[in-house]
Every structure is written in structure tokens, then in C-alpha cells.
Amino acid sequence: MPDNVRPAKISSRKRGNRLGFWFFRSCLKLFGLSGAYGLLYLVCLHYLLFDRKAVSSAYAYIKRRFPGCGSGQAIFKVYRLFVSQGQQLIDRFAIISGSDIFDIELKGYERLSAFLGDKSKGFVLLTAHVGSWQVALTTLKKMAKPVYLVMRPEDNAAVRESLNIDAQDDFIRVISPEGYLGGVVEAMNVLRAGGIVSVMGDRKYGFEGIDISFLNHKAYFPFGAFSLAAGSNCPVVVLLSAKLPGRKYLVDVSHVLNPCYGATKDKKGQLRKYVQEFAEVLDKYTAEYPYQCFLFHDVWKN
Amino acid sequence: MAENKAEKLAEIRKKLKELLVTSLSLEDIKPEDIKDDEILFGEGLGLDSLDAVEIVVLLQRNFGLEVKEMSEGKKIFYSVDTLANYIYENRKQ
């Protein structure tokens, strides 16, 4: 397999591993939602003190989201970010375990519903490391169409568990980006057959990216989702979720982009404006929910 | 019969090369510069995943073909030769 069409293997020590998932699920069972939240403060303090990689990757976001804050304040904000992510992780388990204690508001479903009705072409569901995309995806089960998740095999175990994929295998299917041509052919077939392909739009995972502006700094986002959509003449629906005060979540599918190529030859260059548009959606999201951006990766460094 | 097949394959290869140059906007490359057995992705012609999308589109648009068997993908997309063979074997007459 040529290197430039297969993403480089990324060595990352994932915090969202099986042990972590087991821990949070057990806490939830033993102590309930509030008790599990309480334990989080200790767990996150541990990560803040001993996981330098996690802190520095979160810091990359914090220092751009809050450009004026000093180092001490920034570290405190990193801690808040860790706690916020932990809470969403616990909520996610509560939701997939069948708990109905959360009120989930769905914004923009009417438009999505129109795309679902179009049998001639599918759409790309573009997600990001903000809020809980697993909660968002689980909420969209009512789409009654399988979602093909482009996901690295090394993420399979943890994400499968967090999405309860084995129990919902009719709903979630996986396309490996480490397959031939990065899963492009498979994804195109799904879109052409009227299916849904879900892609992460804010981290390259070894694929080629494009420079755009995110939080007022030059950043690098992947353009694969837009090239798939342009090639298949399909829309891109941005899928975001946010935890609201109280036991509420907002799942937002109201942003739709329609990538297409013009007459100029530079196709990659033409995709930049769509990637930028997506980055601006995320920009607004992080302004509204600053502690729900869980990128944990320096996307500003190429 | 064999002669007919060879002619048809040559015709498909020629068309493919022209389509590759125009669809992928290959700069400074003429269709005749592309060798029949030149590796398309990575080394060789140096195509990437963005080009892969375009090849899938041009196969569908120009030959009415979809590659459904993923396990065969690597063999099919290897070179102009392998693509031409796939088109010859699978396109509707």
C-alpha cells in the first residue's frame, strides 16, 4: 500500500480505552450519575498532574480559545475541560444503557429528513471532537438507515463499546480508513447507494489536510469528507452535540454544506472554502460551549 | 477474437489515460506519458486519495461501473492496465 493513500499509523495512548469505559460504567452503576460526576474531579486531577501529553494537547486548544489568559488560569481551564469530557462520557453510558433521564433536543431534523427521503444519493455526516458525537449518533438512530462510520481499527474496540455497536449493529457499520485507498471506494459506494457515511472533520489522522483558519490561527483540517461529497454529488450534514444546563443535550444537524467543483483545475484548493466553512461552524460552537471541545490534538501544527 | 480483445483493451487504456489527465488535472503529463503498467497510487504516477475519488467517479460516469468487491480494489486500481482489464471484463456491452 502506498504511503500517501494510507494514513500513517498514529501512536497515541488513548484515554478512552476499555478500562476507562469499564471504570465509568461501574461508577455509574454504583454511585448514580451525581456520584460518578463527583468521582470525576479526582480522576481528572490525576490526569492533570500526571498525564502531560493530555494536558499539553488540551492546552493547544485552551490557549487559542482564551488567548488572554495566563498559564495558571489556562491549567485550570484544562482541568475544567477534562471534567466536562468525563461528565459527557458518563452521560453517554447512561444514555446507551437505556436511561431516559436526559432530555435531548434535536435541531434541524426536518432538513435531514428530506435528505433521508432521497433514495438516489446519500449524505456525509460530518462530526467533530466536540460535545458527545456518540450521543448525537445514538440520537439519530431514528434515521432508520445504517451509518457507515469511517474509523481506525485501533479505535474500534473503545468506540464500539461507547456506541454499543454490537447491540446496534444494524445501525452502525465501520469503514476502515486504513483499508485500500483509505476506504474511499467503499465510502463512495455507500453514498451512491443512498447511504450515510460519517467522518470526523477536525483531525487528519494521518491523511492529507488543508490549511484553514480556526480560532483565529492557521490550522490543518482534513478535506476527505468534502471530496467524497463533491465526488458523489452529496450534501455534507454537520452533526454537533452540546451538553446544556440540567440534564439536557442539544443535537444539531442544521448546518448543511454542498461541496461541488467549479471550472478551475485545483480541486483541493476548491475544497478549502468548505473546510473553512466547517471550521467557522466549530468556531461559533466553541464560543458558545468553550468547555466542550475535546480535540486533544494540536490541529494548529501541521 | 483475441485480436478483438487486444484492440478493445488498447482503446480502453487510451481513453483511460485521457480521462486520468483531464479528470485529475495532471499537470505536465500527457496521456501518452502514462505507462500501461505504471503504478497509479503512491510511487509511480503519485496519485492520492483525492484522485481515488475522481477515479471512482470517472469509472461510473464513463463506463457505468462500480467496484463493489473491496478485496479486489488493490488489484483493480493498481495501474492503467489493471483498470482497463476490469472495465473490459465488467462493463455492459
Average pLDDT figure of chain A:
86
Fraction of helical residues of chain B: 55-70%
Oligomer: heterodimer
Question: Low-confidence runs of chain A (pLDDT<50, min 5 residues)?
Answer: 7-13
Please compute the radius of gyration of chain A using only Cα atoms. 19 Å
Q: Choose one word for the global shape of chain A.
A: globular
Sheet having the most strands of chain A: 6 strands, mixed
Compute the number of helices of chain A: 9
Total helices of chain B: the number is 4
The amount of beta strand of chain A, in percent, is: 15-25%
Q: Could you give the distance between the termini of chain A?
A: 23 Å
**Quick one: overall form of chain B?**
globular
Average pLDDT, all residues of chain B: 89
Would you kindly provide a written description of the structure presented here, covering whatever features stand out?
The complex is a heterodimer of chains A (302) and B (93). The radius of gyration of chain A is 19 Å and the shape is globular. The two termini of chain A are 23 Å apart. Chain A has 302 residues and is of the alpha/beta class. Chain A is built from nine helices and eleven strands. In chain A, the strands form three sheets. Chain A has a six-stranded mixed beta sheet, sandwiched between helices. By secondary structure, chain B is an all-alpha fold. In chain B, 56% of the residues lie in helices and 0% in strands. Chain B contains four helices and no strands. Chain B has helices spanning 2-23, 49-63, 73-76, 80-90. The longest helix of chain B has 22 residues, at 2-23. The relative contact order of chain B is 0.18. The interface between A and B is medium-sized, with 28 and 24 residues.
Walk me through the topology.
The complex is a heterodimer of chains A (302) and B (93).
Chain A: H1 18-50, H2 52-65, H3 71-96, E1 103-107, H4 109-117, E2 123-127, H5 133-139, E3 147-150, H6 153-163, E4 172-175, H7 184-192, E5 196-200, E6 209-214, E7 217-222, H8 224-232, E8 236-238, E9 240-244, E10 248-252, E11 256-257, H9 267-288
Chain B: H1 2-23, H2 49-63, H3 73-76, H4 80-90
